[in-house]
Amino acid sequence: MRKQLLGMMMVLLLALGGAARAGDVFLLPYFLGNGEAGIYFAYSRDGLKFDWLNEGKVVLPAPSWGDESLTRDPSILHHDGIFHIVWTTSWNSRSIGYAHSKDLVHWSNPEKIDIWGDFTGVKNTWAPELHWDPERREFLILWSSTTLAELNDDDGSADPHGYDHRTYAARTKDFRTFSKPKLFFSPQNPEHGVIDPYIAHGDRNTADTSDDRWVMVIKNEMAPKQGGKNLRLTFSKQMQGPYNTTLGPPIVGAGTSIVDTMGEGPTLLKRHGEWFLYWDAPGSRFSYCLATSPDLKTWKDRSPEMSLPAKQMRHGTVLVVSESTIAWELPDNN
Questions:
Q1: How far does CA 121 lie from the centroid of its chain?
Q2: Structural domain count of the chain
Q3: How far apart are CA 84 and CA 217, in angstroms?
Q4: Which terminus of the chain has a smaller tally of CB atoms within 10 A, N or C?
Q5: Smallest Cα–Cα separation from 294: which of 312, 272, 311?
Q6: Stronger pLDDT, 15 or 105, i.e. the higher one
Q7: pTM for this structure?
Q8: Residues ≥6 apart with Cβ < 8 Å to 261
């Protein structure tokens, strides 16, 4: 009888433990400084109050790749039980970094991917964003680059720092072979620089899937006096476009009522019928920013409600996953 009771208690404890780890958490990989140390992680249960993972220590140390050893702009994706992460390796490189993990604790050896192959006319490869395309069953990597052809075409879209960014893409199914980079998005009428694209699926909150669409949030990279340094939206019926080349009005960042300073590095996700837009606002009083919306039209600034474990956490990607996928034991941080 005693053994039966002990057995029942063990089953109950395991069940309670499983239930306690069955909830969702918001993951935020980020970097500090210039990205020299590596990638850090924070987590939240409500999307507002974030705490450190790994006691605030680096989770994925920076590799030793000479002048391409930075770990800036980490973008994370969870697919088929594996966490995949990509990042910027330097300010003026042709490569991106890549690693994968089953539990966020144990990571593969970082790999430097020369994403441009034999194409030489490019100045930089910034902020790769990793997506899974359920329509084509492949990984889509978007990033921002200045090609020499774009920079020297005298169309008036170059910035004072010698860049003229557009969105480029490569595809892969296994992170071993990659398609050749192709232009993915360039605004028109007028043509101008953009960086930091991020794509999310929008279901319009209806039972009819025919009105579903894909939403891309992107930074207008022009100067504030030209209407830039803010985040805008564009839409498509397919994940990989084509997207409307006329961007919508600014929703957060410079020139708006929500954190009126430069905004970049966005993540857009939908949860329980509400849109969450996270972004980085260097120079603002916030370490990281958040606005929410029921419809992608009306936005509420939630940045003052956020709590973050470090000052000036920089450009990451917010991802919602089940707590059961994470090896760390997470205390309740609400």
A1: 26
A2: 1
A3: 21
A4: N
A5: 272
A6: 105
A7: 0.91
A8: 229, 253, 254, 281, 282, 283, 284
φ and ψ at residue 178, rounded to 5 degrees: -135, 145
Cβ atoms within 10 A of the Cβ of 167, count? Answer: 22
Give all strands of the β-sheet with 230-236 in edge-to-edge order: 194-202, 213-220, 230-236, 252-253
Q: Is position 3 within any domain?
A: no
User: Looking at the domain assignment, is residue 2 inside a domain?
Assistant: no
% of the chain surpassing 70 pLDDT: 92
User: Alpha-carbon distance 52 to 196, whole Å?
Assistant: 25
334 — pLDDT class (breaks 50, 70, 90)? low
Contact (Cβ atoms closer than 8 angstroms) between residue 277 and residue 299: yes
For the stretch 178-233, pLDDT in tens is: 999 999 999 998 899 999 999 999 887 777 777 789 999 999 999 999 999 999 99
Containing domain of residue 72, as a range?
Answer: 23-325
Please tell me the predicted confidence (pLDDT) of residue 290. 98
State the CATH number of the domain containing residue 110. Answer: 2.115.10
Q: What is the pLDDT of residues 220-267, one digit of tens each?
A: 999 999 999 999 999 999 999 999 999 999 999 999 999 999 999 999
The answer to whether residue 179 is domain-embedded is yes
Burial of 65 (0-12, 13-18, 19+ CB in 10 A): middle
Find out whether 252 and 263 touch, Cβ atoms under 8 Å.
Answer: yes
3-state secondary structure 34-92: CCCCEEEEEEECCCCECEECHHHCCCEECCCCHHHCCCEEEEEEEECCEEEEEEECCCC
CA distance 124 to 145: 5
Could you tell me if residue 39 is inside a domain?
yes
